[in-house]
Amino acid sequence: MLSHAKRLFRINEQLLAIYIEYIDVKIKDNEMKNTKCFFTLLFIGTLFASCDKSDMNYENSFEKSYDKWLSFKETSGNSYRYTVTGSTWVGPAWQTVITVTKGKITQRDFKFTSTGGYDVPQEALEWTENENEINLHKDTPAAAALTLDQIYDKGRNEWLIKRKNTKAYFEANNNGLMSLCGYIEDACADDCFNGISIAYIEPLSTVI
Predict the structure, then answer these.
(1) How far apart are CA 144 and CA 19, in angstroms?
(2) Which of 13, 53, 79, 157 is deepest in the core (most CB within 10 A)?
(3) What is the percent of the chain with per-residue pLDDT over 70, rounded to a whole number?
(4) CA distance 112 to 120
């Protein structure tokens, strides 16, 4: 599948062909043909300038990863699970496993991998939500119940949007699929990451 930039370039190529055909019909004498060349070059310059502009950080890397996701989505039947990791600078750490079956979230598993010495209630240490219980647990550090389609959408339209006084991050270390996506505000000191960290992604057919 073509990336957004490639699709834009392909559309502009088609517009350029239509534009040149129009000029050929309307312009016949040599003087005006020189004018045609000038405006054609001007159009091409504008085309490439527009393609260079983007409101998104890591656009090329993101689009490559998005194409990998579309391929994975098809080969897995849109059935997979992925693990999101999280932590805080004071010690506690956790993980959330989201299970998606044919495009629908069917399970969310959460557990603390470290309490950092804090007293965490037994019932909060580890829990599972089945399909009809998704998002039952409130006030929890567990990752939101999102499909990878929704995560890539947030990456494109929220986490990687260029904004002042921030540093963006994007990695695709899960066989080309997203592993890190988000940003940190420059003025923030602790627990400042806005985005997602995905430890691994696997199709349900490989889950024992």
Answers:
(1) 48
(2) 79
(3) 73
(4) 9
As given in the structure block, the two tokens for residue 149 are 């389609």
Contact 183, 80 (CB under 8 A): no
Over residues 75-129, the pLDDT tens digits come to 999 999 999 999 998 889 999 999 999 999 999 999 999 999 899 999 999 999 9
Structure tokens of 64?
């490559």
For residue 138 the two structure tokens come to 């409130």
Per the model's pLDDT, the better-predicted residue between 22 and 174 turns out to be 174
Contacts of 49 by beta carbon, 8 Å cutoff, 6+ apart: none
pLDDT at 189: 83
Tell me how far apart the alpha carbons of residues 180 and 190 are, in angstroms, rounded to a whole number.
18
Residue with tokens 């994975």: 72
112 within 8 A of 126, measured Cβ to Cβ: yes
pLDDT of 21 strictly over 50:
yes
Return the amino acid letter for 134.
Answer: I
How much is the pLDDT for 24? 55
- Cα–Cα distance measured from residue 105 to residue 91, given in angstroms and rounded to the nearest whole number: 30
State the pLDDT at residue 205.
82
Residue 108's contacts (CB-CB under 8 Å, 6 or more residues apart) are 96, 97, 98, 99, 128, 129, 134, 135, 142, 145
SS3 string, 31-98, reads HHHHHHHHHHHHHHHHHHHHHHCCCECCHHHHHHHHHHHHHHHHHCCCCEEEEEEEECCCCCEEEEEE
- The pair of structure tokens assigned to 8 is 């834009």
